[in-house]
Specification:
single chain; 123 residues; alpha+beta; 2 domains; 3-stranded antiparallel beta sheet; 5 helices; 3 strands; 13% strand; elongated
Length: 123
């Protein structure tokens, strides 16, 4: 990385941003893992923070109206007093998506229709 900084006259964060924009790296941590960064520098700190955020991130999957969900909860709707709600926590988006696919398959198997189910955006 230090050779790129010297040659291009750009900062480490500028170089990292350009590599990410060109799809040559997925994120700051990827740039630092591949090219390194000045210890304690801005890019190094950003990569450490990104790694911490990834380690602490969870995906919460919420799905309303699923058949086969064990409990009905009052969602304070005017059209209905109770609706079946699924809430689960996952380490990755893929796990959350797999869970939703499994729940929807069970919903379909029990005679449900997809328009009965709402899935608020989650992260």
């Amino acid at each position: 990385m230090h050779e790129l900084v010297d040659t291009l006259g750009a900062s480490e964060p500028e170089i990292a941003a350009r590599l990410i924009a060109l799809d040559l790296a997925t994120d700051t941590a990827d740039v630092v893992a591949t090219l390194g960064a000045r210890q304690g520098g801005t890019l190094h700190q950003r990569a450490r923070l990104a790694a911490d955020r990834r380690a602490a991130a969870v995906w919460v999957r919420i799905a309303n109206g699923l058949r086969g969900t064990p409990r009905a909860r009052d969602l304070e709707r005017t059209t209905t007093t109770k609706v079946h709600r699924h809430v689960s926590v996952h380490a990755t988006r893929a796990e959350a998506d797999d869970t939703l696919a499994r729940l929807l398959a069970e919903h379909d198997r029990l005679g449900g229709h997809r328009n009965e189910v709402t899935t608020p955006a989650t992260h």
